[in-house]
Fold this sequence. Notes:
The protein has helices spanning 2-48, 56-62. By secondary structure, it is mostly helical.
Amino acid sequence: MSKARDLINAHLYPVLASFAVIYGAIQIAPIANQARSFNQCVETMEKTAAKSLKGIGAVAICNGRTGADVLIVD
């Protein structure tokens, strides 16, 4: 009986750990894509927008604020 339990422990736990890692990666993937998209938006806004919209202004626009609502900081 003890040998069967050792075999189960030796094979079951690594399999469960592998599934946990895969599940975690699946859960993180959409967050990584959203962050990548946001970073591209900020970089694009900093390249194309006026000097006053760099930094905080670019972040505010990428977060969904309209151009009139953006706080302009020099």
